[in-house]
Write a structure and sequence with these properties.
By secondary structure, the protein is of the alpha/beta class. It folds into 2 domains: 2-127 and 308-367, 3-Layer(aba) Sandwich (Rossmann fold); 131-304, Rossmann fold (3-Layer(aba) Sandwich), CATH 3.40.50. The chain is 33% helix and 17% strand. It has 12 helices and 15 strands. The longest helix has 20 residues, at 306-325. It is globular. It starts with a strand and ends in an 11-residue tail after the last helix. The relative contact order is 0.15.
């Protein structure tokens, strides 16, 4: 199979879908790799490294798109790339279709096969290709929140850890999954006062075992969210339903009750966000204010640390990519769990949660292959 990789064109997105080591693995498996020149520079990988690994460099991204059978990316294709979609192409990337009807319709009308990192489930029901970016986004959320609490950015001027004789900042984390757990690690480590909410009592028990008396665990109910937000300095939204739009658990009325200059970091923004006031922002213009509360809603947070992010992501995606490159249909028959990653196939929507988000028809992949 011919594997393609192009430079990401989303705002301030410096990650890349393949490292030189990945290229070597594909080439050694008998595949050809087409790579846009300069695609890896943002993550610190030179064209020379890719060439030594066996990639064929292309000056024009169109050459890569048109010449490959499977495009390996990081972020979802943007409108300027929709024209490259075709029925015999596999796109292997984060798609987040539930938050983007235009992209969903473009993929369906073209017949392209969309394999979404974020919906692939393993035998334990976990999301192995989402996990590394969840870890990074969770840890970054505290770092970014700390920055925008500074008065310079309109924040209330609070240091998360405090100092002797001053109160610690109050951090509220909504969602105790991978993102929330990693946010909690940094929040606890920095010395803040931390509350974490989740709908799963077993998950809360697990978090209580890990962090003990250093955190407060609460069931994620409307009342508990509203009361927790009222005194919060920093709120991190980490709600996830794989493939489905994030539920709006933080209501506009709750935000009106929050302290002026407090900060919300909505990590769920890729799936539409878990706050009613969320809208996607970019690294160039990352924040906005609603009712005196600073909102940070960057849609590609890990792109801020591309070297770490690219290595972490491709560590997870390579093994699955190599299996898909042997033939998607054969790979799915051999390992039925792979079908959870297939969101669109030959004009049909094959991810039920995406279909539910838009009220569209859903077809089981087993009926199509």
């Amino acid at each position: 199979m011919r594997i393609g990789c192009v430079k990401e064109i989303k705002n301030r997105e410096y990650r890349v879908g393949l490292t030189p080591d990945n290229v070597k693995s594909y080439v050694n498996a008998g595949h050809e790799v087409l790579l846009e020149a300069g695609a890896g520079l943002g993550s610190g990988f030179t064209d020379e490294e890719y060439e030594r690994a066996g990639a064929r460099l292309c000056a024009d991204p169109a050459e890569v798109w048109k010449g490959c059978d499977m495009m390996v990316k990081v972020k979802e294709p943007l409108p300027s790339e929709y024209g490259y979609f075709r029925e015999d192409l596999i796109i292997y990337t984060y798609l987040h279709l539930a938050a983007d009807r235009e992209l969903t319709e473009a993929m369906l009308s073209s017949g392209v096969c969309g394999f979404a990192y974020e919906t692939l489930l393993d035998k334990n029901g976990a999301t192995p290709l989402l996990a590394p970016m969840s870890q990074i986004a969770g840890r970054l959320s505290i770092q970014e929140g700390a920055k925008y609490l500074e008065k310079t950015y309109g924040g209330e001027g609070v240091l998360l850890s405090g100092v002797p004789g001053t109160p610690k900042a109050k951090i509220v984390i909504i969602g105790g999954g991978n993102v929330g757990t990693n946010a909690c690690k940094i929040a606890v480590g920095i010395g803040a006062e931390v509350t974490i909410l989740d709908i799963d009592i077993n998950r809360l028990a697990y978090l209580d075992d890990i962090f003990g008396a250093r955190i407060q665990t609460l069931m994620s109910t409307d009342t508990n969210i509203e009361n927790s937000l009222r005194d919060a300095d920093l709120v991190v939204g980490c709600v996830l339903i794989p493939g489905k739009a994030a539920p709006k658990v933080v209501k506009r009325d709750y935000i009106k009750e929050m302290k002026k200059g407090s900060v919300i970091v909505d990590v769920a923004v890729d799936q539409g966000g878990c706050c009613e006031t969320t809208r996607v922002t970019t690294h160039d213009d990352p924040i906005y204010e609603v009712d005196g509360v600073i909102h940070y809603c960057v849609g590609n947070m890990p792109g801020a640390v591309p070297r770490t992010s690219t290595i972490a992501l491709t560590n997870a995606t390579l093994a699955y990519g190599l299996r898909i490159a042997e033939g998607l249909e054969a790979a799915v028959r051999k390992d039925p769990l792979l079908k959870t990653g297939v969101n669109t196939y030959k004009g049909r929507l094959t991810c039920e949660n995406v279909a539910l988000s838009f009220g569209m028809d859903h077809t089981e992949l087993d009926e199509l292959i």
